[in-house]
């Protein structure tokens, strides 16, 4: 059985589930953002696999070749741009490579690394998600016909946000490492933006600006850590 025979045995896309038969590997460290991706894939008909870091993603890719890989640009063990560059240069190539981030500068970085398309966080629209994946696919893999989309807002599980806050609290314990502070600041900022948690997002942005300018970080770190703890103890409802 050759590759075309295998493809012929997969479920065919439909108007309501245009990604049916496809597998999406989501490389994402935020459980909240990943739950949003789970819902987007579910409504679109795609199967989802998740990796929470570069190392885990590379293990996945040694075992199977997904239809699409959605790569967050900020990961705990490095930049998503490195994985995108690897994927873009691999033969056979993953059909669709998608970069994603909440940072405004990340789109240029993702596309320069070899991504086919970029999705800005938060991703709440089913139609936007579907169009991005389909546009990134080679022409012969794109489903044809009119697509019927129920574009009700995606609402990730609030418990996933709490899990992200627990992860942030653990990482915030190491104030001495600039790289870790940079990572957790980006992580908290992105998750808070996706969840609509404006106060925490603004506090994380203030911390990022202080670090970028070489200012003392203790006060900003303490403020962010306290706000994270408030969300863990249910003092703040999301």
TrEMBL record:
Keywords: Phosphoprotein. InterPro entries: Bact_response_regulator, Sig_transdc_resp-reg_receiver. Residues 23-136 form the Response regulatory domain. The modification 4-aspartylphosphate is found at residue 72. SMART domains: REC. The keyword Nucleotidyltransferase does not apply. PANTHER family: RESPONSE REGULATORY DOMAIN-CONTAINING PROTEIN, STRESS RESPONSE REGULATOR PROTEIN 1. This is Response regulator.
């Amino acid at each position: 059985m050759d590759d075309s025979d295998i493809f012929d045995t997969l479920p065919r896309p439909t108007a309501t589930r245009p990604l049916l038969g496809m597998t999406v590997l989501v490389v994402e460290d935020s459980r909240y953002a990943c739950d949003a991706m789970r819902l987007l894939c579910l409504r679109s008909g795609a199967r989802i696999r998740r990796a929470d870091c570069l190392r885990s993603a590379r293990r996945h890719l040694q075992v199977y070749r997904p239809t699409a890989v959605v790569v967050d640009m900020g990961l705990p063990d490095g930049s998503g741009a490195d994985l995108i560059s690897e994927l873009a240069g691999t033969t056979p190539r993953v059909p669709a490579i998608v970069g994603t981030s909440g940072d405004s500068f990340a789109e240029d970085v993702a596309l320069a690394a070899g991504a086919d398309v970029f999705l800005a966080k938060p991703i709440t629209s089913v139609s936007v998600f579907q169009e991005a994946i389909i546009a990134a696919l080679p022409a012969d893999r794109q489903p044809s016909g009119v697509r019927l989309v129920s574009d009700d807002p995606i609402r990730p599980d609030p418990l996933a946000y709490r899990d992200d806050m627990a992860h942030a609290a653990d990482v915030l314990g190491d104030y001495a490492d600039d790289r870790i502070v940079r990572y957790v600041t980006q992580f908290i900022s992105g998750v808070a933006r996706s969840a609509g948690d404006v106060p925490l997002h603004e506090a994380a942005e203030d911390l990022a600006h202080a670090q970028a300018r070489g200012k003392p970080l203790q006060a900003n770190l303490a403020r962010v850590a306290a706000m994270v703890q408030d969300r863990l103890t249910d003092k703040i409802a999301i």
